[in-house]
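Troubleshooting: if your tokenizer reports a length mismatch, compare your output against this known-good record of 398 residues.
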Amino acid sequence: MSEPSVQATLEAVTQDRPTESQTHIARLLLTDFRNYARVELDLAPGLVVLTGDNGAGKTNMLEAVSLLTPGRGLRRATLEEMARGGAGDGFAVHARVEGGFGEAEIGTGTAGERVAVAEASTRKVRINGAAARSADAMLDWLRIVWLTPAMDALFAGPASDRRRFVDRLVLAIDPAHGRRALDYEKAMRGRNRLLADQVNDDRWFEAIETQLAETGVAIAAARVEIVRLLRAMIERLPAEGAFPQADIALDGTLEEAFGSAPAVEIEEGFRRALAGNRHRDRAAGRTLEGPHRSDLLVRHRPKDMPAALCSTGEQKALLTGLVLSHARLVAELAGAPPVLLLDEIAAHLDAGRRAALFDILVDLNCQAFMTGTDRSLFSSLEGRAQFFRVSGGTITPD
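Known-good structure output:
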């Protein structure tokens, strides 16, 4: 049986929470993370600007904050890469979170054990001094959304990047989505092993394909729901605004089936398709159908053009608009806006769009971390943001 929709799940999780109250990181402490031996920041609600030369550690700081949510962070790096060279005892990221979801002390990392050992498992997470059952527990306290220069190629890059982007959008409002994705990937690896080993036992395949159908349809349903909700939020953007409206759709067998059939029928149809495709999949050496093959289609509405064919600047504006619309959606549904991580954001926007972005962030009432090499690009935020100077593993108020 398929799981509840994103909307239903969210309503159940957040029904007793206050609305529109800013969640922010009030204190951040890093130990042996990347180029930081130890750094401690006291942070106010609102905007945070980190400036410094290339390689100073600005993105490292954003990456540390991105670990306060499930996953591998904004760089998708290994735990060994995150640990400071020569430290030998892992790294730690600790934050005091205050605001809409309450107050909590959140810690994560590999400190206290050799990184090579930790790499064989997942990073540890502690909340208010107690070990968390999983990293998903951090979503009870804050949601984090990011936009990095590496994402500038999202529309023209591989479909896998866009699937990951959609799944992170879902995760910000539906904490169960990460577990679904992990369960699906595990089941798919199991089926692929059966195919590679030339196993012909129907009972093995039926058990795995039943699990694939259940989790696969739940993943597809969550993606369909987030796209539906995001479309509604995009419609609120001004037609002639700094960030153009985007038309978005999902391209995938399961996702396209929603709207024409109930989830239980889609699930059964997918299970039958998996069984019928065993011979073809065995020849290919992998499972060829499922939500792991889906894609996100994006069009620049004012120009009626696929995003992949737009200019670099137009793609950046489209992507920024999508991320901001999603942040508004999280604020509206979860009861508190997410923490935004915007790496080198100002350098890629013209003056008009920078001003519009800063006004939107203030209006969102969110904590947003922004980085840049040129402090003057953020001059309009004087008096509206905290400024820090990053240099060689140190951070000082600027």
